[in-house]
Design a protein that fits this description.
single chain, alpha/beta, 2,3-Dihydroxybiphenyl 1,2-Dioxygenase, domain 1, four-stranded mixed sheet, elongated, Glyas_Bleomycin-R_OHBP_Dase, Glyas_Fos-R_dOase_dom, PhnB-like, VOC family protein
Length: 138
């Protein structure tokens, strides 16, 4: 397997819901492993929290995520965005509609000065997304 770079998102207790949401958005196969399934936090409140989740999509995306082991208070704070880009307008607009639903749009998906269609939103789990639709190269 070739090396690859993919986002790994940290959640404060709602990783299962977030990863299931991303599976609804992108499709694909989702594998979720809990702390309890690895023998950690057995019987405790963290047993059902996600220790490692991985979504592999038909488009070749891999998105990983987990709950912070001690919950929301220890979830790290980062400045980041997850970026989706390409020239398949129908596919990317579909992702945008699902990701922005129930979230907050900071830049509406629209034609920009550089010629591409671009938008920014934060989904209902607090993850910031950028979507860039370029003209097909031909």
């Amino acid at each position: 397997m070739a090396s690859r770079l993919n986002p790994y998102l940290q959640f404060g207790g709602d990783a299962r819901q977030a990863m299931e949401f991303y599976q609804e958005v992108f499709g694909g196969e989702l594998v979720l492993n809990t702390y309890g399934s690895f023998g950690q936090a057995e019987g405790g409140p963290q047993a059902d929290m996600i220790m490692h989740g991985m979504l592999e999509t038909p488009s070749g995306f891999t998105l990983m995520g987990a709950d912070s082991p001690t919950g929301a208070d220890s979830a790290p704070v980062f400045t980041y965005s997850v970026s989706l880009s390409g020239d398949d307008e129908t596919e990317l607009r579909g992702y945008w509609e699902k990701l922005s639903a129930g979230g907050q749009v900071s830049v509406p998906l629209d034609k920009q000065m550089w010629g591409d269609v671009f938008g920014m939103c934060t989904d209902r789990f607090g993850v910031p997304w950028m979507v860039n639709i370029s003209e097909p190269r031909g």
